[in-house]
Amino acid sequence: MNILQIGSGMPGWAGTEKYLSELSQALLGRGHQVTVACPEGSALKRYCLEQGIPRIDLLMRRTLDWPQLPSFVKVMRRRRYDVVHIHGYRDYIVPALAARLTRVPAVVMTRHLPHAFRSRSRARLCSCLFYDRIIAVSYFVEGVLLKSGVPAERLTVVQNGVRPQAASDSGQSVRGELGVPADAFLVAAAGRIEPQKGFETLVRAMARVQGHCVIAGGGGRAALYELVTELGLKDRVHLPGFRRDMARLWACADVVVIPSTSADCFPYVAIEAFSAAKPVVASRIGGIPEACNDECAVLVSPGDAAELAAALGLLAASPKRRLAMGAAAKARASQFTLERMVDGIERVYCDLLNGKTCQT
């Protein structure tokens, strides 16, 4: 198949960009032609250049950036794609319309966030006129879309998956970099530092737990650092910023925490932690319970620092329980692989094309 992956409204780097880039790389590995549309200077473009993924410079500055329509039409008309696959909210309308105008056979959206349509009429218009299929990254997201008016036959659930990445070492060198003692109980978390990620709750929980905590991620670290300082935790809570060696961070941690306070659709952090055989403590919200079962995770109330601290304290006191949960986590990870995710997406493409251009 000749596939155009649209990420032209994505200047930064988060879960959606990870999904798009790893999907594109995997599809190329299966023999498809794949091109990524992304903005000049974006993190997504840098990834494509590093990995040798063909790309086109296209930019959506806002949702209804109509002056960009001719550029999308020109690209799609010239290259005759079989599939146009759209991911970010800025790209939902203009690129999809361009695909319809140029008669692209299959137009697909992945809904990465639990955003309901504003009305049932908009839901039907988008899912039946602009798109041939909407992929939901979790059953939680599917439920949100069904409730807002998307017909069930236009929806397919394909849960997120990750490529297993073994750390190059046990991660002990990361502890050394951060000043964490080799024998200290270490909690790890990662994500863009913004209120809905719940990192403030995690910092407050660490004031009640003996051990160290690493919160990796870009964004608004200043406010979080102020809280760390206010609570006297500068020696135990570490904010190293964005890291590209997450496998090493998970390897050196005892527990991985996902303290989200708003609906998380299907957390990459959880399945990365499972792949590293690490137990998870996470908020009972959104699609998190879909990924995490009782054997490999402890679920707590969102925003409740005391409950989060209690869960961490129990795991800190029981290395045997952590080991058993880690083994269960490793088994759980096999259900959420990148290979399985790409299989599901490839089936969607082929179903829409009636099997004429591919075989699975």
Structural class: alpha/beta
DSSP strand (E) fraction?
A: 15-25%
Query: Helicity range of the residues?
Result: 40-55%
Shape: elongated
Work out the count of structural domains. Answer: 2
Low-confidence stretches: 356-360
State the fourth-level CATH superfamily of the largest domain.
Glycogen Phosphorylase B
CATH topology of the largest domain: the name is Rossmann fold
β-strand number: 13
What's the tally of helices? 15
State the CATH class of the largest domain.
Alpha Beta
CATH architecture of the largest domain: 3-Layer(aba) Sandwich
Q: What gyration radius follows from the Cα positions, in whole Å?
A: 21 Å
Q: What can be said about the biggest beta sheet?
A: 7 strands, parallel
Mean pLDDT across every amino acid position: 93
Largest beta sheet: strand ordering: 3-2-1-4-5-6-7
Q: Care to describe what's here?
A:
With about 350 residues, the chain is of the alpha/beta class. It has two domains: about 1-160 and about 335-350, Glycogen Phosphorylase B (Rossmann fold); about 170-335, Glycogen Phosphorylase B (Rossmann fold). Helix content is about 40%, strand content about 15%. It is built from 15 helices and 13 strands. The strands form two sheets. A seven-stranded parallel sheet has the order 3-2-1-4-5-6-7, sandwiched between helices. Helix 1 (about 15-30) packs across helix 15 (about 340-350), helix 7 (about 170-180) crosses helix 10 (about 245-250) and helix 11 packs across helix 14 (about 320-335).
